[in-house]
């Protein structure tokens, strides 16, 4: 039997919308942010169409608590700003309105249309990738600019109905993640959609539709042209959401992990079982801490992700006559410089990772007063946890780890005093709020 033509599949989707009344979809206004409702009503009362859209609608239909509430309207960004004194327009590639309510930001986008309808300066593409996307249209244009069917559902404030052009409701019932349009074209428009597919599939417990997942491995290299800073934002969403262990596995399956961390992937491809155990333990530990509402930092994951490349390069430097500490410092510089070409990392995180690596050498020295001084180091606890991680992954560090565990218990007052002092310093560094 002949396989279906993706273009034919898209054509079949273009139909009149299904309107799901409030009695059938189960979304309750009480579960929607009060501030989002304020913005929706003010837009409506000003004569504009206004809808809750995207992940907010999807999560409400799934019985989840949305992380944020995004809105879509036929009002242009400048018209939105006229309605809200607390509005700020952002973005050049995607012009958006942010309406501020204290710490909560309600993001409002204007309906977008196809680039075929663009006038000069509104939209711009290069090699199929969208560089500028400010081509405005109507709701039935905007729906086709969304990425996945489950994110292309609109909650209408007029009558509390849900508008579904693309079969998103059925995909939610089927727990299926399906890209709108022809996957190859949509991934070329914005390669980050491949990372979003993995993230949503893991977060929601959905299967990626076969037609949507088939081209990912072949198109993964397109991510190399995405700014490294944007990939860092995606890294945070992928690995700091409580599902990093599953995310890591799926990223490797689709060839996406190699783009984010090429040095680490090279070690994994050489059959390094230790690095796989180290990363799996680091991800599981991070997920557990997030589930227990404990603090986590991307720097610790960064230290785990790049440890083997750093250690291997440091070993080479030591064989050429450098001291262990100098070798670690030199290797850290080289590995991080290489890494930030792929996934940019803020200096505060790379600096902390460097300290964790350097302290692995200092933890070996247990003579005299050095251990007590090390207890007062701001990064001691992170370095100690990293030592335990290395031991768990198979390094012969049990005796050293047990010694430091016992030493901490015997000098708990030193640890507590150091913790208080670090907290005081952090508070002093905080900028004072203007009156």
**CATH level 4 superfamily of the largest domain:** cca-adding enzyme, domain 2
CATH class of the largest domain: Mainly Alpha
Q: What is the name of the CATH topology of the largest domain?
A: cca-adding enzyme, domain 2
Lateral strand order in the biggest sheet: 1-10-9-2-3-6-5-4
Task: Give an overview of the whole structure.
The structure is a single chain. The protein has 435 residues and is of the alpha+beta class. The chain has two domains: 179 residues, Beta Polymerase, domain 2; 197 residues, cca-adding enzyme, domain 2 (Orthogonal Bundle), CATH 1.10.3090. An eight-stranded mixed β-sheet has the order 1-10-9-2-3-6-5-4. The protein has a two-stranded antiparallel sheet with strand order 7-8. Strands 11-12 form a two-stranded parallel sheet. The longest helix has 22 residues. The N and C termini lie far apart (72 Å). The N terminus is likely disordered.
Short synopsis of the structure:
The protein is α+β, with helices and mostly antiparallel strands and 435 residues long. It has helices at 6-13, 22-25, 34-45, 55-61, 77-83, 139-142, 168-174, 183-189, 192-204, 210-213, 216-219, 228-239, 244-253, 257-260, 262-269, 273-291, 298-319, 324-339, 347-362, 370-375, 380-392, 398-410, 412-429; strands at 18-20, 50-53, 70-73, 87-90, 96-101, 104-110, 123-126, 129-133, 153-156, 162-164, 176-177, 207-208. The chain has two domains: 6-184, Beta Polymerase, domain 2 (2-Layer Sandwich); 233-429, cca-adding enzyme, domain 2 (Orthogonal Bundle).
